Amino acid sequence: MNTPTRLRLGCIADDFTGATDLANNLVRAGMRVVQSIGVPDTPLAAGVDALVVALKSRTVAAAEAVAQSLAALRWLRAADAQQIYFKICSTFDSTPQGNIGPVAEALMDALGCDFSIATPAFPDNGRTVFKGYLFVGDGLLHESGMRDHPLTPMTDSNLVRVLQAQCRRRVGLIDHRAVAAGAAAVRARIAELRTQGVGIAIVDAVDNDDLLRLAPALQGMALVTAGSGLAIGLPANWGFQPSAQAAALPPPSGLRAIVSGSCSQATHAQVAHFIAGGGAALALDPLRLARDHADTVGEVLAWAEEHLPAQPVLVYSTAEPAAVAATQAQLGALDAGALVEQALAEVARGLVERGVRQLVVAGGETSGAVVQSLGIRQMQIGAQIDPGVPWTHAKSALGPLHLALKSGNFGGVDFFHQAFAQLA
Ligand code: ADP
């Protein structure tokens, strides 16, 4: 275990794209941030203010989520992190068994923390909390698409009730009256809740000003549990202010490429826009891949090698729902997904072997596969391209490169061009 740098904020994120979202907000608020895939196994560079450990603990068994989170906590404490931020989904994705409650309580126990708060509020993304109820856009959580989520259906919008079902400690509420009145009123409310035996409080926040007023009241609290929204306010507790320096990355070099395995609507529009603008693009056919994996990947890379020197290339499996359904009917949904992810990860590696050093990846699962195939363990977070998607700089097994990992529905229609233009 290496602990060469003193961290202000140590973050434990329960999934990969959520970790990037949090890191992005911290950078925008002025911190130098590194995201680590799992618990770090290499030393941190000097001058890192916050480390975000990306776990995959949202939907695993609660005991496993607790074990992973405590392993991350041990590393962060050894690195002297002054405050721990447990990053959860802004729609409070969890089941009656957890994992938000069990992980938060295990972290509190380990830290000797007798009072903590939880708030998924992320007003910029339409997630607001009022009287303990979570709203998604203009409606309540349980009326949103989240009620039908395959793994974590959210059928109750009252977060005090939802969290209480997962916790031993008593759960209370710091309501909007206190938050609107400012940090002193929040501190007074915390003192009041403590006397009532409350150990964890949901916090109301309906806009960014609420989060900015809340943050100073959380100074010195060993643990906070939140979506990425709270990150806009916390860095100021250490005197950080938004600065270009926080997002500075080494200058870009090498060739440029995009790999897209996302079939989300936003990605569709981005791929179509890139092709319509005359971009060099090649579609990967999953059925052809199933018949002849090695030849298909080889042909893609040969095509890319020809076009790369002149312009960015796009390799995509992005397809219309009907085409995806037809492929899934033949190969099975899971097998088709794994096959395409594996192939795109090989393509990404092949592209980097051919000199690509600026790589955009579209798709959450696809990003996970690409990062793994490139042997990437840590990423320095740079400037935001579009909300939730920053450029990053990573050391891969094949050398350093710039990487932008875009979860499916993020980004404007011109995202691919915009990403390279911004880096240049
Ligand atoms: P998103 O972030 O848009 O959800 P992901 O990469 O997380 O994107 O998920 C997309 C999934 O669909 C991946 O498992 C990918 O391999 C799979 N996939 C991509 N293209 C196709 C296709 N043409 N047919 C079937 N499955 C596909």
Walkthrough of the structure:
The structure is a single chain. The chain has 424 residues and is α/β, with parallel strands linked by helices. The chain has two domains: 9-245, Rossmann fold (3-Layer(aba) Sandwich); 249-423, Molybdenum Cofactor Biosythetic Enzyme, Chain A, CATH 3.40.980.20. 37% of the residues lie in helices and 22% in strands. It has 14 helices and 18 strands. It has a 15-stranded mixed beta sheet, sandwiched between helices. A hairpin with a 2-residue loop joins β17 (389-396) and β18. α10 crosses α12, α11 crosses α12 (333-353) and α12 (333-353) packs across α13 (364-373). The radius of gyration is 22 Å and the shape is globular. The two termini are 36 Å apart. The model has no long low-confidence stretch (mean pLDDT 94). The chain binds adenosine-5'-diphosphate. Residues 261-264, 267, 286, 317, 319, 324, 327-328, 336-337, 340-341, 363-366, 407-408 line the site of adenosine-5'-diphosphate (ADP).
What is the top-level CATH class of the largest domain?
A: Alpha Beta
Q: Fill in the CATH topology of the largest domain.
A: Rossmann fold
- β-strand number: 18
Low-confidence stretches: none
Individual helix count: 14
Tally of individual domains:
2
Give the name of the CATH architecture of the largest domain. Answer: 3-Layer(aba) Sandwich
Estimate percent helicity.
25-40%
Largest sheet: 15 strands, mixed
Enumerate the distinct ligands. Answer: adenosine-5'-diphosphate
Structural class by helix and strand composition: alpha/beta
CA distance, first residue to last residue: 36 Å
